[in-house]
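Lab notebook, bench 4. The sequencing result for the construct came back, and we need a structural model before the next group meeting so we can plan mutations. Quick request posted to the team channel:

Model the 3D structure of this chain.
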Amino acid sequence: MNDMQLDGVVGGNHASDLVTGSNTVADGSLTGNAGFTTMVQNTGNNVAYSSGNATIVNLQLQ
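Done. Here's the predicted structure in token form:
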């Protein structure tokens, strides 16, 4: 069994008078990709998003 214990903390930050950007994925953005493709979108400020982006893959060939 595989196990991950991940933690992420955002604290003590200050953001003011900020404008976030556009958060779009256009047709064809992932064209030509192969394998297991992931995408993280973030238009916020002071955000921890990588802490929850983990993957365990078990592959058994017979």
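Residues 31 and 59 are 25 Å apart (CA to CA).
Will bring this to the meeting.
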